Amino acid sequence: MSTDPKEAREPATRVARDALQRPLHDLRISVLDQCNFRCPYCMPEDEFHADYEFLRRSQRLTYDEILRIARAAASLGVSKLRLTGGEPLLDKNLPTLVEGLAKIPGVDDIAMTTNGMLLAANAGRLAAAGLHRVTVSLDSLDEDVFRRMSGGRGDLNKVLEGIAAATAAGLTPLKINVVVQRGVNDRTVLDLLEHFRGTGHIVRLIEFMDVGNQNGWRLDQVVPSQQLLDKVQARWPLRRLDQNYPGEVARRYAYVDGEGEIGFISSVTDPFCGDCSRARLSADGVLYTCLFANRGTDLRESLRVGADDEELTDVLSQIWLQRGDRYSELRRPEVAEAHVLRKVEMYRIGG
Ligand code: SAM
Ligand code: SF4
Ligand code: SF4
Fold first, then answer.
1. In terms of DSSP H, where are the helices of the chain?
2. Whose CA is nearest to atom 4 of ligand 2?
3. Is the CB of 267 under 6 A from ligand 1?
4. Do the Cβ atoms of 262 and 204 come closer than 8 Å?
5. Which atom in ligand 2 lies closest to the alpha carbon of residue 38?
6. Exposure string (b/e) for 167-196, b if CB count within 10 Å is 16 or more?
7. CB of 203 shorter than 6 A to ligand 1
8. What is the pLDDT of residues 137-196, one digit of tens each?
9. Ligand located closest to 135 CA
10. Which atom of ligand 1 is nearest to the CA of 207?
């Protein structure tokens, strides 16, 4: 592996395009499936109880295995990496992995999605290791609503301290992800926006998705982005911003009064499969080409029976070439409740 920082800007040797001509740009890496929260929309406590069997260490990819897959993906066009989970900060050695990822030729953006509980203690080390940006998931600033949405485990002050530490460490622009559920946190959204206006942090309001099989998703709990947009506009006029890059999932708006940016992620009411350039790697090495996939490809098996780097790149390339996923465009929200296929769970692939 090269240690020359200049190489990090080298382009991919070949760019993979899928069956719908979409390039492979992003790889999301779930480092472990465990979490210190039990958000009911992701890991409901009655399913993920004290006896639930998470992956054993031997079942999880090692850092060397993750680095090999990330290098192969970079050689096919991946330039953006995102660490996720479960909760990635439960992995105490994460800076070591980040250091390795930062040296991969072609990778120019490394981000992490976290619930923020353990961020204050780790932000500085992660930034020093080469992490560029952080997204913090924070559904409400109302303490009762926040506690409920974290499954009774979150401490709001700790998350806010984590956001401050990440900002001080330069892990910016920092994004705040808010999953909006009707009757749960929708009435607290404007307060949250007000809190972050003028801070430079970008709040993104996400429609509650029918991902996985265990969160009891119902269409009537989804607050369509358009409704939220109308509500926000009525308080603070907004103007539409261009995409930062093709395939960006959030529709971007700026507050007309100059107090910052806000995003809407509308995967239920306004899907964005047409530009989707993301692959997702679970902690046990299964590669998924769609958030709603019902199966993926086991790369851990290939690695552990001795595939060399060229073989690994070929396997990845074949997976991407055959990809035709566009779940959100094909499903109609009104029939999604009746979907019978077992889909991968969010905590395995990290959003
Ligand atoms: N634990 C970390 C966190 O919460 O940021 C990383 C993993 S979490 C699965 C990644 C993102 O997925 C979070 O922002 C979370 O809010 C979002 N998410 C989980 N389940 C969801 C659902 N059913 N609909 C929409 N977003 C969801
Ligand atoms: Fe954990 Fe993140 Fe899922 Fe919440 S959304 S249960 S913090 S993995
Ligand atoms: Fe991408 Fe699948 Fe989501 Fe469509 S449904 S945007 S293909 S992850």
1. 63-75, 94-102, 119-129, 143-149, 156-168, 189-196, 225-235, 299-304, 309-321, 327-330, 333-336, 346-349
2. 39
3. no
4. yes
5. 6
6. bebebbebbbbbbbbbebbbebbeebbeeb
7. no
8. 999 999 999 999 999 999 999 999 999 999 999 999 999 999 999 999 999 999 999 999
9. 1
10. 25
**Amino acid 267: pLDDT:** 87
The pick from 30, 54, 115 for probing ligand 2's pocket by mutation, whose C-beta has the most ligand atoms within 8 angstroms, reads 115
Domain segments of the chain: what residues?
Answer: 5-349
When mean pLDDT is compared across 12-26, 63-77, 337-351, the lowest value belongs to 337-351
Q: Ligand 1 centre from 136 Cα, in Å? A: 10
The residue nearest atom 3 of ligand 2, judged by CA position, is 42
C-beta atoms surrounding 40 within 10 Å: 20
Predicted pLDDT of residue 6: 43
Ligand 1 atom 4: the closest Cα is on which residue?
A: 115
How much is the pLDDT for 344? 74
Query: Which one, of 92, 173, 171, 180, lies nearest residue 139 by Cα?
Result: 180
Could you tell me the fold of the domain covering 5-349?
A: TIM Barrel (3.20.20)
Q: Which atom of ligand 2 is nearest to the CA of 48?
A: 6
